[in-house]
């Protein structure tokens, strides 16, 4: 089912949203048959509950969705998505929802219809929604489509989404919106001075590459950089099997950037967008890069490779150096970069790094409005020494394991040319099913960024 609202004018079943503390008053105002039915079926207005009420002809006359309590709502998001998943097929019209919650709940309803069915038929929700009054329906449909793109890319295994297929996804997106797309591939990476992307990806069957997409010819310049490691074995520092099982999602940064780019272009934001995605598979063969190797990045900095499993920052470094040469107004990188970030904030928060307090304030407020939680982390300058090994300018994997996400972010900042720079260290995966988020790939931070960009860039 498409992630869209029902066509305007479609007859809709009233869906009353009722909080626990308002249930008795609401029931008292209903016909006796409705109140008796709901009491008999055990409806308590708990969060996630939904109950259809029959009409006299055996159909659904109305439905009720529980909205819980303030405390229960604070422990989650997209509260009405559960109703979408359990109500009978039909089109519903929400009534009684606080206006400030309408946009988030409507988006959650759309996202509840997402199902990754490439390999097996899935049972998606069948309850459609009429767009609530005051909600920008077309905008929410664009956002849902961008999120679905991200999820589809992350969910697809590397056998079907290697570097070739990820390149196709990028060029297809560019063609759809009339963007320019250039691909620098294989040995041309050396000729074009992108040596670390080449070093990381040269051992794989499919050639490493950099995808450079540009859209828009007026307004402030925004460059998005996404980590596109289609599969990460760890290289010669081979991951154990238990750590390799989810590595199809190591291109989650690229997938999230592409979902955000879709939103920006489809909504026609008045800016100049550039998307840079280094695409590799970190594989093992005779040509694999080695622990102890010293690589020279695009900007001339030398990097000692102390762990080939810290490859994401290497490919991002070349892409960031290229981004900086274009002197955009803002560079944002997104990557499934460190396990340390997951230890710090878990799978539900998108930690980000920035030196720009104005951006952080705008982003935090935007994240709260659109239910896309983020958490600011520090570019802690005293830790710079931890990424300086002595034999080279930088160390890609400082020993000791302390502050792993921070040191990775500091490493990346060395390549941003002193320009305004924000880095997201995301997980891109929903480990357990939740409202509007089935287990699997998920976007993190993109909707918050989309909401914040007008204020951050002065659009």
Automatic annotation (TrEMBL):
The keyword Cytoplasm does not apply. PANTHER family: LEUCINE AMINOPEPTIDASE-RELATED, PEPTIDASE B. The keyword tRNA-binding does not apply. Belongs to the peptidase M17 family. Residues 307-314 form the Cytosol aminopeptidase domain. This is M17 family metallopeptidase. InterPro entries: Leucine_aapep/pepB (IPR011356), Macro_dom-like (IPR043472), Peptidase_M17_C (IPR000819), Peptidase_M17_N_1 (IPR048816). It comes from the Bacteria. Keywords: Aminopeptidase, Hydrolase, Manganese, Protease.
